[in-house]
Specification:
Blueprint lengths: L2 H22 L4 H20 L7 H23 L3 H22 L4
Helix pairs in contact: 1-2, 1-4, 2-3, 2-4, 3-4
Organism: Alistipes indistinctus YIT 12060
Protein name: EamA domain-containing protein
Keywords: Membrane, Transmembrane, Transmembrane helix
Length: about 110
């Protein structure tokens, strides 16, 4: 499968996985759409990026967390409770993307 097509399809899946709990909690639509778009593009970046001197299994989590920091600052300004949840979610989903990309031999 083409690398770009794979990253788009996986981005759609990861974005959906991220927003399902948000939809269940009936969070505002702008927050849900923002999170979906965030993880959609993070997935594409992780799959197309290779960080030198960083082990393959750690790259996805690092990139996802780094790209989530601005959101953590914004959310943490109003309410600090969701910050660790969002950060953990970024690490887990980013790591999953990195591992899937590695084992599909696309990286």
């Amino acid at each position: 499968m083409d690398k770009l097509l794979f990253s788009i399809l996986l981005g759609l899946l990861i974005g959906l996985i991220d927003i399902i709990p948000m939809m269940v909690q009936k969070l505002p639509k702008y927050s849900t759409v923002s999170a979906f778009i965030h993880y959609f593009f993070i997935t594409i970046v992780i799959i197309h990026l290779d960080l030198p001197q960083v082990p393959w299994w750690l790259q996805g989590g690092i990139v996802a967390l780094a790209l989530t920091v601005p959101m953590l600052i914004q959310v943490g300004h109003d309410d600090r409770k969701p910050v660790p949840i969002i950060a953990t979610n970024a690490l887990i989903l980013g790591s999953v993307v990195g591992i899937l990309a590695h084992f599909t031999h696309l990286t």
